């Protein structure tokens, strides 16, 4: 299973990006191998509107089955939910901490967006 | 004659002036509240609307019939209102501009157009005028189509006053377009001046004649006067800053209730000053 984490950089050592749609990068972490692949979010970052929708489509296409991020807006949440991608919200600072919490089962699956559009 | 009341920013007294103008004129007029995101003219008009009309736009609906996941619809949309998930397309009606592009782009006629409510129009009888307010549903960003449908109810004859949305964005332009004249309301502060300049630039670009009403005029009024003179803009009226006016508002009274003496100034403004300006500019 692959998990997408929103990140400000390109490795698990770097701070997580708390926003989903406007995150700098997505880190695709492979739970089986521990490998990390970087997925740039450039297109969504440059979008005047609908960044969350675009970012969510990217994540879905990457094959990720779960997302770990700080906040998620309603439009992105709808895309992810429809595609069957689980959303976990965390205040973890970096990728390692987020994954540790995820593996320990300490992250709760979000059942709704937690911020208004435009915010995330 | 159609006259829009606009301002570069909110809170300058645009609505108060619109209402007072509509009330001051004898012989009746129609007041259109085009500030559809925050309409508040009706707060000063007693009673429930005697008529309400829903406002709808057309948005695509995904019918699930024969989609091959080609993604042409998503690429055709300039407003990111669609998301494709495999052979399924999600529609975000609140982002849609109703251009119909996606419906045309789909080779398999999977998308069809359906109505989608974005707000309503409310009709009320005011004191000596008819009020029609555009009210946008919360969470919507599509003010221009609502304003367009609101403006379809402009009567063919008589005076029409339109309370425009603040700022200089699409919805303001949509409101003032096709008016005969625009009254710009401003305050005598550096911020007021800055926003006034932006509004004047916008109006000159679309070639609309305008004049300025300075609200809450105090010692700073020279700032606006000087700019108007430089820019060749007529100052139509200065409403003085007075404590009793501010207090009157906070009790919910209109401008004319607090300052009956302004009634005559407003009549002159509408009946004499504006026609004279239009005549001088060769527009009448
Ligand atoms: S009608 Fe136009 S704006 Fe609306 S979803 Fe289709 S292409 Fe996008
Ligand atoms: S254009 Fe038509 S067939 Fe292609 S993805 Fe969109 S809805 Fe499906």
From TrEMBL, chain A:
Residues 15-103 form the Dinitrogenase iron-molybdenum cofactor biosynthesis domain. Coiled coil: none annotated. Gene3D superfamilies: Dinitrogenase iron-molybdenum cofactor biosynthesis domain (3.30.420.130). It holds the Pfam family Nitro_FeMo-Co. It comes from the Bacteria. This is Fe-Mo cluster-binding NifX family protein.
TrEMBL record, chain B:
Keywords: Iron, Iron-sulfur, Metal-binding. GO terms for molecular function: iron-sulfur cluster binding; metal ion binding. Transmembrane segments: none annotated. It comes from the Bacteria. Residues 58-82, 87-116 form the 4Fe-4S ferredoxin-type domain. InterPro entries: 4Fe4S_Fe-S-bd (IPR017896), 4Fe4S_Fe_S_CS (IPR017900), CobQ/CobB/MinD/ParA_Nub-bd_dom (IPR002586), P-loop_NTPase (IPR027417). This is MinD superfamily P-loop ATPase.
């Amino acid at each position: 299973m692959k998990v997408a984490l929103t990140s400000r950089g390109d490795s698990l050592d770097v701070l997580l990006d708390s926003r989903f749609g406007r995150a700098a990068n997505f880190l695709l972490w492979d739970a089986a191998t521990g490998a990390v692949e970087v997925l740039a979010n450039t297109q969504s970052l440059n979008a005047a509107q609908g960044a969350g929708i675009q970012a969510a489509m990217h994540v879905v296409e990457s094959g990720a089955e779960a997302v770990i991020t700080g906040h998620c807006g309603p439009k992105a949440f709808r895309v992810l939910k429809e595609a069957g991608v689980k959303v976990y919200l965390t205040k973890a600072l970096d990728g390692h901490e987020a994954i540790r919490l995820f593996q320990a089962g300490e992250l709760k699956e979000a059942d709704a967006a937690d911020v208004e559009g435009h915010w995330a | 004659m159609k006259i829009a009341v606009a301002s570069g920013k909110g809170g300058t007294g645009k609505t108060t002036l619109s209402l007072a103008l509509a009330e001051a004129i004898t012989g009746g007029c129609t007041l259109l509240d085009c500030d559809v995101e925050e309409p508040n003219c009706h707060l000063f008009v007693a009673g429930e609307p005697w008529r309400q009309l829903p406002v709808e736009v057309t948005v695509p609906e995904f019918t699930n019939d024969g989609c091959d996941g080609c993604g042409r619809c998503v690429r055709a949309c300039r407003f990111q209102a669609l998301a494709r998930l495999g052979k399924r397309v999600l529609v975000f009606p609140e982002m849609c501009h109703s251009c119909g592009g996606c419906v045309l782009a789909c080779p398999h006629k999977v998308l069809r157009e359906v109505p989608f409510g974005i707000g309503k129009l409310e009709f009320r009888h005011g004191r000596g005028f008819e009020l029609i307010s555009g009210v946008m549903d919360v969470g919507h960003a599509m003010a221009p189509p609502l304003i367009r449908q609101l403006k379809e109810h402009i009567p063919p004859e008589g005076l029409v006053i339109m309370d425009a949305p603040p700022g200089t964005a699409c919805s303001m332009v949509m409101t003032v377009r096709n008016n005969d004249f625009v009254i710009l309301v401003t305050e005598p502060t550096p911020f007021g001046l800055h926003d006034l300049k932006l509004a004047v630039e916008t109006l000159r670009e679309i070639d609309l004649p305008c004049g300025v009403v300075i609200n809450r005029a105090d010692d700073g009024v020279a700032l606006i006067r000087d700019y108007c003179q430089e820019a060749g803009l007529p100052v139509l009226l200065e409403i003085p800053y007075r404590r009793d006016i501010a207090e009157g508002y906070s009790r919910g009274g209109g401008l004319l209730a607090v300052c009956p003496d302004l009634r005559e100034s407003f009549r002159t403004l509408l009946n004499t000053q504006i026609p004279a300006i239009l005549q001088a500019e060769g527009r009448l």
